[in-house]
Structures are given as C-alpha cells and as structure tokens.
Amino acid sequence: MGNHWTLQDAKNKFSAVVDAAQQGIPQHVTKRGVEAVVVLSAEEYERLSQLDPGPDKTFIEHLLSAPKLPEGLDDLFDDRDQYPSTPREIEFD
C-alpha cells in the first residue's frame, strides 16, 4: 500500500496507517479519488503547530513587501511608448 490509501483501505488497515505515521511517514488518504487527509504522528503535528506563520498580511501589504527593482532599473518598463502600435486596416466585405 505504501503511504497512499483509499478511505476504505485506511479504515480496514487503520492500525497500519497509524503505525506508519508514528514511524514518521505521513499517510495520505483519498476519498472518491481525491486526497482528503494526511495522517501524521502526534510529534510531527506538534512540531508543525509550533511553526510561526508570521503576521497576517493584507493583500496590499503582501504586494508592497515584494522585492524592489535594483537601483538603475526603475525605468525598465518606461519605454512602452517608444514603440507606438498602429492598427492595421481590415476590410469587412
């Protein structure tokens, strides 16, 4: 079975699912062919729960925190008007 189980197989072999998770191998369980849950050891769950996700940012704050262009490249996109586009003539018959 490895570490991927259908829901029915995971129910039937729950002890094996738990044993593998306790050995540090996350167990993926699918429901109707779609991954539904991952079974982890309690130790791994606690470790992941302690990770600091950082402060919640608004979408605007997220965009403003993007890396800035290096000095001298500020006008990188300012040449858009250098190449004016002219529409081609199309005849509709």
Automatic annotation (TrEMBL):
InterPro entries: Antitoxin_Phd/YefM (IPR006442), YefM-like_sf (IPR036165)
Pfam family, one: PhdYeFM_antitox
Region: Disordered, residue numbers: 71-93
Function: Antitoxin component of a type II toxin-antitoxin (TA) system.
Family listed: Belongs to the phD/YefM antitoxin family.
Identification of the protein by name: Antitoxin
